[in-house]
Predict the structure.
Amino acid sequence: MGLVVMKFGGSSVADADKIKNVARRVMETRDAGNKVVVVVSAPGDTTDDLITWAEKITADPDEREMDMLLSTGEQMSIALLAMAIKDKGYKAISLTGAQVGILTDKVHNMAKIVHIPTKKIRKELRKGNIVVVAGFQGITEDEDITTLGRGGSDLTAVALASVLKADICEIFTDVQGVYTTDPHIVHEARKLDIISYDEMLEMAGLGAQVMQARSIEVAKKFNIDIHVRSTFSHEKGTIITREVSKMEDVVVRGIASDKNQAKISIIDLPDKPGVAASMFTELASKGINVDMIIQSSAADGRNDISFTVSHKDLLKTLEVMDKIKRELGATEVIHDRNVAKISIVGVGMRSHVGIASKMFSALARAGINIEMISTSEIKISCVIKNVHVEKAVKVIHKAFNLDKKKN
Amino acid sequence: MGLVVMKFGGSSVADADKIKNVARRVMETRDAGNKVVVVVSAPGDTTDDLITWAEKITADPDEREMDMLLSTGEQMSIALLAMAIKDKGYKAISLTGAQVGILTDKVHNMAKIVHIPTKKIRKELRKGNIVVVAGFQGITEDEDITTLGRGGSDLTAVALASVLKADICEIFTDVQGVYTTDPHIVHEARKLDIISYDEMLEMAGLGAQVMQARSIEVAKKFNIDIHVRSTFSHEKGTIITREVSKMEDVVVRGIASDKNQAKISIIDLPDKPGVAASMFTELASKGINVDMIIQSSAADGRNDISFTVSHKDLLKTLEVMDKIKRELGATEVIHDRNVAKISIVGVGMRSHVGIASKMFSALARAGINIEMISTSEIKISCVIKNVHVEKAVKVIHKAFNLDKKKN
């Protein structure tokens, strides 16, 4: 007996049969004696269809009106799911973000949650209702409808779990859980039973798209256990939870790769204080998110700096760098779109030695050249040519025996 | 310079081009120096599509959740229309029924408006905004979303025009206005420049489907002029307004017909007080709406009663009548689905004589038998066989010279 927040994504409510399946999952959880709050996304392609409508009206849709438009998708889902549940004789009620009172800031299309009052939901739970809440949406203090941006429904679920002090937040998805690496690349990839918030944050930031980083950050901040599991099976998935010392027994939890990387190098910069600072300040002021940075000094008082950005920022970056080159008197700026980042993640790294060398050796044996390296307490990342990514993931997965169960 | 409420139905906002056309109409009204409030219905088939979704979920959708579902249709329209207007550099804001605060009772699927606060709309008008309001929907005091039933968007428009003290309420539709009769039946049918509330109420009640009766009742109660006109042309349509003495110059304003009628006769009822009362009380208690009633007494102390109901109530009516027949000792109950009602409407009837005889003569000359007659101050209705309806409308239209302009 507890309070469970269950979240289902758009593919889980894409048609009437899938909505009925979700209703069954929800009723099973209710039958087990739990109070249940369900968060749902818009059905399947609904959001894309709505965006297409808007694009036919104008090339530059007003952001407030876009939120007004898009929020109808989740409203459809909650109504249909509540109908499906009530049809089976269970008590249920659907609530929009506005009806719950999910207060956000005024940044339309990517609003931040400011406050969630619990009065309305608690009242409906006391009446015995399964409470079906629209994900992804909120309301400003002026009662304008807002949406939370990518991964918004996950965020709604985790935030509700937090304010309601839920026992667990279940994120239902079309995969079985979080894997040691992408099963499409490595067939031996293994579903993890457990992963820490920090490990999951590193994995999410590296392109493992099970959940967006900001939902995990909220879960970590408020210590909400998340259970990532499949909508279409009853098997246990992966628990994302706070770190416990036992987790350090596992050195490497998982491997993530990211092909959406470009490497930029500026050659023969003057070796004087403030050069790097002014360069990265300029890039930051243009909204460019710089990832890995390495600097190599030569003896003659000049040096090179290399860094990575995502593909979408590459053109803007090259414009800025061209200007910097002339201002600082560097020789040239070179770039490479065909690189990728491969990373191993695990809280156990902190208490184990020789992890980096094991990774580097595995790559070396496979004949893969490492172009850049960066490390954090729980992560080691290497930039390599992107043609080598699949091979790299495979050899590292094997080197750390990730196919063998350890957690 | 005034305040104009404009209402556009679903066919006027069925696709992106039509929405842009509506935006142009709205901006023209704004350019003429008016403050503008626009009410829109859900785009084209959206409501039907949503109902189909619900039917796939359950045969008996919960009414609260149905309102939650259906209200997304108008929310789509207001967002898209506000986008289209803003795209042209005009100021606009969309508001749901809940955001306006359209308070209704709790009768889901056919709620009644209880109160409309004007604060929010007036505030947005003062800011220079064109205010785009979702028709058809409201909110209960518990913040549950409700819908107003058939013709609900017209009702929203007329009610808003009333509380905002608008100068005019324009109802845009796919016809040019209100006609002397159905132009599909009589090619010479003429668009009326003006019609009184009472005449329009009779026409609406008789199946002239330009507007639902309850919107006209509200307009009459609060003395709101309604301009029924075409979305797709700039010609003037028909003004529905309060009766002025000049209107009596025209004897017959229009002709309406209704094929959705069935006639029931109960034969040989005992001729004693209270028989008719008990029968119609019983029918009313079952929610059956009885229209025309005639009673014919025979000399032998027994009599027959005939009345009409709509087709949908026929089966229920026959069940009730079978019981009444046994209780009262009548001989038999007979019925006829193949009847229709044809009516002439006009406030001028009150001050003119010979109108009924002219109507009956026209029908007689055409060889059409009259089965029942009922009259009111401004209406004469006849029940005839429904195969004769088109012919009857034509001969009466001609008899009263309705193709000639008189108003």
